[in-house]
Amino acid sequence: MADILTTKARGSIAKTRAGSIDEIQPVRLGLVCNDNALSRQAGLYQQQFGFERLRIPPGSGFYLLYSIQGLALCQHGASPIWVDFVAGAMGHRRRFGGGRGQPLARAMGMKPGFNPAICDATAGLGRDGFVLASLGSRVTLCERSPVLAALLADGLQRAALDAEISDWVAQNLKLESTDSSDWLDAVDEAQRPDVVYMDPMYPPGKSKVLVKKEIRALQQLLGPDRDSSRLLEIARQTAQRRVVVKRPKRADWLAGEKPSTSIESKKTRYDVYVTL
Ligand SMILES: C[S@@+](CC[C@H](N)C(=O)[O-])C[C@H]1O[C@@H](n2cnc3c(N)ncnc32)[C@H](O)[C@@H]1O
């Protein structure tokens, strides 16, 4: 796990435009593991991400379950959520998602012979970052929630065991368990990404777009990303070529900032801020 991950599990400072500072406290959950053979790895996740070990699931709310299938985010009455880069929706999107012609790839400025280095500043369940890595870009997945970072670390561990994808996953995907504002602030000049990609959590209820059940669960667990205007500012100062912000199709521009151009798909808009 140490190869895959760099961890800085701590609160993030969100500076609002008005200048006030809020400490964003990471949500930490209890971790259940009833399989003795998996106990050592469960202990590593527990230590690395600061989870409490539970013997049985709590009576209500979210918890993490580590089983032979992997690490899952669970909630009573809902299907478990895990990061599966090998099969399921991700396997399907990798094979049939439209390749470099899909709006996400076009928004990144991918061209024949050019695969931009990308910082996925809001990695979440890693779906967009994984697609971009499968198309040839080197992607740094930055995720500040210890819960999501642990799910990603576990998904990457299982991807590393898959004969079909392990080589390019090892080469193209790196996880940073940290706030991307801090990562972008600290990145070496030579390592500055060509593109910073942002897909912040949109406040629920503002959009009529039907959100997928996973994203609904994340909204419930983490709440909206209130500091994304600040992240956009830092991203625009750091990206060598462009910042791309994913928005629901009819949503306002992030922070009221007009993009250089936008690329639309059925339900989504990618606002592109050229920084060259
Ligand atoms: C809507 S989800 C992203 C979904 C992702 N694009 C995918 O394909 O799975 C937003 C995620 O960004 C993370 N996030 C928001 N602001 C962040 C920041 N400044 N640094 C790191 N992670 C951040 C949140 O914790 C959340 O997990």
UniProtKB/TrEMBL annotation:
UniProt protein name: 16S rRNA (Guanine(1516)-N(2))-methyltransferase
Organism: hydrothermal vent metagenome
Matching InterPro entries: 16SrRNA_methylTrfase_J (IPR007536), SAM-dependent_MTases_sf (IPR029063)
Keywords of this entry: Methyltransferase, Transferase
The EC number(s) this enzyme carries: 2.1.1.242
Name of one Pfam family that matches: SAM_MT
Phylogenetic classification of the source organism: unclassified sequences, metagenomes, ecological metagenomes
GO molecular function: rRNA (guanine-N2-)-methyltransferase activity
